[in-house]
Fold:
Amino acid sequence: MKLQNVVPWGRNLQEYRAMGLFRDEDLHKKILGCGDGPASVNKTLSQMGVDITSIDPVYQFTREQIAQRVQETSSVVSEQLRLNSDDFVWKNITNVEELISLRLNAMEEFLEDYETGKIQGRYQHQELPKLNFNDKEFDLSWSSHFLFLYSEHFDFAFHKKAILEMLRVAKEVRIFPLLTLENVKSPHLKPVIEFLNKQEFVCEIISSEYEFQKGAFEMLRIVHV
Structure:
C-alpha cells in the first residue's frame, strides 16, 4: 500500500455501537478489529479495560505520515461531502459539519494513541485474508466499512477467504455494512452466506439503528455452530 492511496476516515465508539458492532455485553470479550484504520474505538475501549487489537495496512506508516495524510485529504473529503450531502441519511449524524467534526476528532484521538498502541500491540500492520493470530484467539472480530462495501475491488474469493480467516481466529464475526459503494446489496453477500451455511456456521442479518449511507442499516453476524 502507498500512503497516497490512503483516505483516512476515522469512526468512534458511538458509531460502532449504533452499527451493532459493539454492545455492552462485549466489554469482557477479547476483540479484533479488521480494517479499523484511524478510528478512536481502540483507544476508547482500551481505556475502558477492553482487550482489543486493531489491524490495518495503514499501520505500516508512522504517526507523522498518517497525520500528514489526514491533513492533505480532510479538506477534499469535506468538500465532497458538502457537494453530495443529499446522498446520505442525516439521522444519527445531523449535518455535514457534525460529521466532519466527529471524524476529525476520532482521527485526532487515534493519532494521540497510535504510538503507545503500537508499542502495546494494539495496532498491528496486518491485513486480510491472512492473519498472524492463533485459532480462536479472540471472542469477537469485526469489519467496519471494508468487506462487502468494496465489492468491486475485492471479489467473492477474497471475501470468502477473509471471512473464513476471521472465523478461524474468532468465535464470532460481525460485518457492517452489507451494501457496496453504489448503495446496492453486495453481489458477494448471498453466495458468502450460502457457502458459510454449508459449513459449521450460522449467519444472521441484523438491522441496526445506524444509517448514514442510504439503505446501509444491516449487519451480518456469523457464529460457529
